[in-house]
Write a structure and sequence with these properties.
about 110 residues, mainly beta, Barwin-like endoglucanases, 1 helix, about 5% helix, globular, Resuscitation_pf_RpfB, RlpA-like_sf, hydrolase activity, hydrolyzing O-glycosyl compounds, signal, 3D domain-containing protein
Length: about 110
């Protein structure tokens, strides 16, 4: 029988990524607001990340002061790209494309 050694150790990776924004009504979206993980989109929480970053990973963006949860994917979201969900199309367009420092926090289990 194996005993647990307590809570998992978090691993935090800091890097600069290209960050964009999307809405439920962007071209190619169905307007329903269901992410690739099956959750509903939520501003200030939902972020799309490449498939090498697992669902549930926390991504903190210091410039925005917000921690997002990876719950979505996207065809153009590969490499060092992230896509924030926003309710307002005007706000998403105003956000544009930004190179931002991000802190990626995954839970590591041993």
């Amino acid at each position: 029988m194996t005993q647990s050694r307590g809570a998992p150790e978090p691993h935090i990776e800091r890097r600069v990524m290209r960050v964009t924004a999307y809405t439920n009504n962007d071209p190619g979206m169905d307007g329903r607001g269901i992410t690739a993980s099956g959750e509903r989109t939520q501003e200030g929480r939902t972020i799309a990340a490449p498939s090498d970053i697992p669902f549930g990973t926390q991504i903190y963006i210091p410039a925005r002061g917000t921690t997002y949860i990876v719950t979505d994917r996207g065809g153009a979201i590969v490499g060092d790209r992230l896509d924030l969900y926003m309710e307002s199309r005007a706000e998403a367009l105003h956000f544009g494309v930004q190179e931002l420092e991000v802190w990626i926090r995954e839970e590591l289990y041993d």
